[in-house]
Fold this sequence. Notes:
By secondary structure, the protein is of the alpha+beta class. The protein has six helices and four strands. The protein has a four-stranded antiparallel sheet with strand order 2-3-1-4.
Amino acid sequence: MIIRGFLFLPLFVSALLAGCSSAPEKVPVPPVPVAAEGKGWWYAAFRFDWPKQRPPAWHRDVMVAHRIIRPVLAAHRGQIDLWRVHRRAARDGAGHRFSFIFRASAAQAARIYADIRANPYLAAWRRAGWIREVHYDDVSRIKRPNIEDTSDPGWPPIIQQTWPAYIMGVSEMWLDLVCRLGDEYAGKDAKEEPYLKVSRILDRLWRDNARHAFLHHLNAIYGYQPFLTRY
């Protein structure tokens, strides 16, 4: 069962917050062997701390998108064919995870992973315990070479093959909203409190505008035809 909601912000000791108030310098990352040629799909998946009996801290997805994914795209967008973000929280082995999923060469994936590993905000948030771990794919081989390899296998093949372009546009709009609000409210430090406000504003924007700005216009593209739905 997917659990939705906001994490009640825990009280952290002042020393912890002080340690995360500014970002450290990047740490050099050594190169790793990569597959020789071809392109495929790659994941960078951030798993967050999620204490029992508490809702997931959805605002931390927003933090990662603003401080880690935006600079990756700014630096590497020309070498990425397709990309998207994925948010999920379930009481299973994966827990609360935010994923950046992109299609590129193995060599490009290695460069992107190196930038993520060296990101000063990531280092600060891992020290704080907010991010428990980050998963990176093995760049020595391409496991997902096909366009449809990260789509739902239950969909018709033609949907699997065309859906990545759709969800990239959705992700791009969401990230743009995140970054505009993050730039306004979060400043440049590594604290998480401002992102609680950013996340609440995003929720209100979705609540108040999804019916027309998002769903109505998506329906219009398909000629206002009826569809089956469940939530």
